[in-house]
Structures are given as C-alpha cells and as structure tokens.
Amino acid sequence: MKLAIVILNWNGAKLLAQYLPSLVKYSPTADIYVIDNASTDDSLKVLENQFPSISVIKNSKNLGFAGGYNEGLKSVKADVYCLLNSDVEVSPNWIQPVMELFQKMPKVAIVQPKILDLKNPHYFEYAGAGGGFIDKLGYPFCRGRIFQTLEKDEGQYDDTTEIFWATGACMFIKSSVFWSLEGFDPEYFAHQEEVDLCWRAKNDGHLVYYMGQSKVYHLGGSTLSNANPHKTYLNFRNSLYSITKNLPRRNALPLIFIRLLLDGVAAFRFLLQLKPRHGWSIFKAHLSFYYNFRKMYHKREKANFILNYYPVKSIVWSYFVNQEKKFNILVKD
User: How confident is the model over 97-133, as pLDDT tens digits?
Assistant: First the structure.
C-alpha cells in the first residue's frame, strides 16, 4: 500500500525546520507532502531551501484544518494518507505496525498511534493520547487523557484495539474512505472535525483502531491553546454539529437539548472562574449552531446511524463528581 504523509501548515516555519528532519529520517518508504494554507511567514522558503525532497501544495487562502486538507489532498495520490501535525516528532518504526494492521484487517479504515507529550515524554498528550472515545452525552475523551488529567505511560495502552475516534494530530486513513465520506466537514474549520469524520466512517461500517506499537510525540497548542476562547467556541459548537449529523433523530434531538443545558452550566462555571471570555464563547457557539442547524440537519440525509459508545453514561459526572480521572477506573453502566 502506498503511503503519503501530509502535513497541513500555516505560518509554522519554525515547526517545519524543527520536526521535519526526524520525519524524513524515519519515513523512508513514504512520500511526504506539505499543504501550505497561504502562510505569510518563511514557511515556503524553509521548505524550498532545507527540504527540497518534500512536495509542497499551495492553497490560495487559509481554509482551516478541515478545508485545507480537503483542498490539498486532491493533489495527493496514495492508498493511505497519514495526516500529521507540523508539531509532531516521529520515532523509529512508527509506520510499519500501522501499515501491517491495514493489511491484516481490511475493514480498518482509520488508525491512530500512541500520542505522547513531547515536553514530558513519559506522559500521554492531550490530543488523542491512547485513542478517543465518546460518552452517551456526546462528550469526547481519551484513554490516557480525561479533560486536563494526563496519565503516565506505563505500557497500559500498548495494545491494538478498536476506538471511536482518532486524533487529527496523527491519523492514518485510507484515501478511498476519506473521499467516499467527502473528507472533513469544512463547516467545522478546526477542532473536532476528526471526531465527526471517524463517527461518519463508523456509521458507514468502517473500523477505527488504535495501534500502541507505533508512537509519536506531540508538542500541542501550537495553533490554538486551551486558554484561547476561540478554541472553546469551536469545541462547543462543533460538538453540537456532530451530534446533529451523526445520531438517529430520536437520540439526537433530546441529546441536543440536554447538551445546551449543560453548556449553560459550563458557561456559568467559566464565569465563577473569572473567565468571562470563555463563557461568552459558549454563547456565541450556540448562536452559530442555531444559525447553521438546518444546514447540519440536512447532512443527515447521507448518514447511516449506529449507537457505539464507551459504556460511561457521563464522563463529566464520572470525572468531576466521582473523581474518576483515569480511564481504567471509570464507572461502567
């Protein structure tokens, strides 16, 4: 199977210079591409002068994560795409276990490796960690990372197992599946578009897997940090989008109502924490969701629907009330 590693870049010249050398060194069998989202820094000069073997695809404007990949991947020919953040450092033999999994299990369409923290490599990293899941209220979480609690990597997630979603920080996906799903939803712009893509893939009968024998190290926060209110806005809005699009109507509509109420609680909590800009971001997320609801609802026409959760009724309740902050001690229904 032909593999193309594809990095989406926007004003990340320093990251490219720092992390591309290890990628080139440890990926001899793959073609490497950088999709540039109309950067205004020295990204293109860095690529031309320091990495002439890497193919560059230039988008005419910043289309965000979702739109940027959708546009750029039109020019990439491969059986499997590895969508890789520019702030990821790869390790030796990171590709082989993933490609072998694709060969052994044809129904597997998406694979995520182990994601460790580049700054603290003995711990899992926020974006993806040991594989993504979703609770019965539609909240995404990860093995090895629940909200802001990160687990130490002690080999507990060195397995190969089915997951619900794979992180966009390092996602291997069959190109045929990516295009059959029409790629990422550009309405998301950024954040949680990978949850939506994996959800649609699972609804279409494909498997999403985690491969613990492959590991990469993610810097994280190089685009939007968790302290950025715009990230709060995107996460809350896009989560509502995914519920609207990917659940049967009898489940989606009541859950949307519950989530809107819980979002209000979250906004009030931000106010108590003296973070009014984050509370305002939730309000704006709801306004955008209402405005785009009809458009999102019509996208359901292309969907098949399954109910496939990790058996946790509410990750919020388990974490904040029961103080269950590690994946292996979560209360199961």
Answer: 999 999 999 999 999 999 999 999 999 999 999 999 9
Q: State pLDDT tens for residues 291-300.
A: 999 999 999 8
CB atoms within 10 A of CB 150: 19
* Residue 244 structure tokens: 């609207």
CA distances to 139, 154, 286, 316, 318 from 322, in Å: 17, 24, 28, 9, 5
Q: Which domains does the chain have, with CATH numbers?
A: 3-218 (3.90.550.10), 229-329 (no CATH)
Nearest to 99 by CA among 164, 30, 168, 195: 30
What is the model's pLDDT at position 332?
55
Read off the pTM. Answer: 0.94
Residues paired with 170 in a beta bridge: 84
Q: Is 329 exposed, middle or buried (0-12, 13-18, 19+ CB in 10 A)?
A: exposed
**Which residues fall within 8 angstroms of residue 92, CB to CB, at 6 or more apart?**
26
pLDDT band at 192 (very low <50, low <70, confident <90, very high): very high
Q: Can you tell me whether residue 156 is helix, strand or coil?
A: coil
Phi-psi region of 238 (alpha: psi -120 to 50; beta: other; left: phi over 0): alpha
Terminal-to-terminal C-alpha distance of the chain: 40
Helix axes 276-298, 229-246, angle to 10 degrees: 30
